[in-house]
Amino acid sequence: MAKLLIRPILGIESSCDETATALLDTDGSVLAEAVHSQQAEHTPFGGVVPEIAARAHLAVLPGQIAQVMAQAGLVFADLGGIAASAGPGLIGGLIVGSQMAKGIAIAQRLPYVAVNHLEAHALTARLPGLVPDGAPFPYLLLLLSGGHCQCVAVEAVGRYARLGGTIDDAAGEAFDKVAKLLGLGWPGGPVLERLAQAGDPKRHDFPRPMLRRPGCDFSFSGLKTAVAREVAKHPPGALPMAEAADIAASFQRAVAEVIADRAGHAMAIMRARDPAARLLVVAGGVAANTAIRMALTRQAEASGFTMVAPPIRLCTDNAVMVAWAGLERLRLGWTDDLDFAPRPRWPLDSPGMNRDAP
Ligand code: KG4
Ligand code: ZN
């Protein structure tokens, strides 16, 4: 018998380089939220430095939680539960967020939920108001972020099947590495997309790894190597802007084609598993890319699916999705013990995700 939560839930996200807190009402509406990007802390190093990330989470979280509670005009005693990302991710940050959540749970005797960060991305589409009918199960999730690149059959809360994923780099990682080769700074995706607008996407015929291969696995390292070879034709530091723009546009076109092709295969696999499936949900920072969104929209249409991408602020790392995943679990009466240890690796389809499973 499902238990209904009668008081708001607090969610905490600290698995990578965003420190975030959100407070959701029992129906999933957002009462207050805050996201602190650690971009400034990591930019000098050209990527996320785990130790710096953990320290930054520790410095920011207490004040951020207090601010979000105050914004909603609530105190901890008003809460009905607390959820925090407990993996997968960088262990230092996961420990900071989890310990903070457990501390509040102990002090207030609140139910605690250790949220799988990937599950949070997977369930975001079910937040009230995003998708008509609330994204009914089952649907296909395409997660495209800096650290993750996978196709997942989302069958129920806690019931996920990984249909395919990257065998080397994640899509966002490929954008970041190519942006670095082009001297564009970090994170690379948004800057590369902007530069690509000025370039000719047909100038370079870069490889399309895995295109038309069976299944829905991805690979991006060969494409990155091809870009590196093109860049190396110019003396170091002397790549003309127009050349860089052509490379960026051609790279982005290759990625969009590969992702659309792989998504097409994933939708066919999903249909074969469950003929009722008709929704493709795209999440992760790379879902912000217009060329990729357009390619996916076209592919979804051709495959008889409807594509939905949550608004960008909910596609990238945030705490609204963590609180929502916590809420979905609490509604089923699923909570976690306070000795739950955060997990740097935690596949979505690992045992224990579904409490109802035999
Ligand atoms: O989901 P996210 O915010 O964080 C995690 O990785 O968990 O995704 C960040 C990634 C970065 O690799 C970034 O370069 C990429 O998403 N990204 C983009 C764009 N915006 C962000 N990639 C391509 N085009 C974009 N517009
Ligand atoms: Zn994420």
Q: What is the first-to-last residue Cα distance?
A: 16 Å
Shape annotation: globular
Q: What is the count of helical runs?
A: 11
Percentage beta strand: 15-25%
CATH class of the largest domain: Alpha Beta
Number of domains: 2
Helicity, in percent?
40-55%
CATH topology annotation of the largest domain: Nucleotidyltransferase, domain 5
pLDDT under 50 segments (min length 5)?
none
Q: What small molecules are bound in this structure?
A: 5'-O-[(R)-(carboxyoxy)(hydroxy)phosphoryl]adenosine, zinc ion
The CATH superfamily title of the largest domain: ATPase, nucleotide binding domain
- Name of the CATH architecture of the largest domain: 2-Layer Sandwich
Question: Would you tell me the structural class of the helices and strands?
Answer: alpha/beta
| Computed CA radius of gyration, to the nearest angstrom | 21 Å
Sheet with the most strands?
A: 5 strands, mixed
Nearest-integer average pLDDT: 95
Q: Using DSSP, what is the number of strands?
A: 10
Give me the secondary-structure topology.
Layout lengths: L8 E5 L4 E7 L5 E8 L1 H4 L7 H23 L8 E7 L3 H18 L3 E5 H7 L15 E6 L4 E8 L2 E7 L5 H11 L6 H9 L24 H11 L9 H33 L5 E5 L6 H13 L3 E3 L3 H4 L4 H12 L27
Parallel strand pairs: 1-4, 4-5, 6-9, 9-10
Antiparallel strand pairs: 1-2, 2-3, 6-7, 7-8
Helix pairs in contact: 2-3, 4-11, 5-6, 5-7, 5-8, 6-8, 7-8, 8-9
This protein binds 5'-O-[(R)-(carboxyoxy)(hydroxy)phosphoryl]adenosine and zinc ion.
Characterization of this structure:
α2 (50-72) runs parallel beside α3 (91-108), α5 runs parallel beside α7 and α6 (188-196) crosses α8 (241-273). The chain has 11 helices and 10 strands. The strands form 2 sheets. It has a 5-stranded mixed β-sheet, sandwiched between helices. A 5-stranded mixed β-sheet has the order 8-7-6-9-10, sandwiched between helices. With 358 residues, it is α/β, with parallel strands linked by helices. Helices cover 41% and strands 17% of the residues. The longest helix is centred in the C-terminal third of the chain and has 33 residues, at 241-273. Bound molecules: 5'-O-[(R)-(carboxyoxy)(hydroxy)phosphoryl]adenosine and zinc ion.
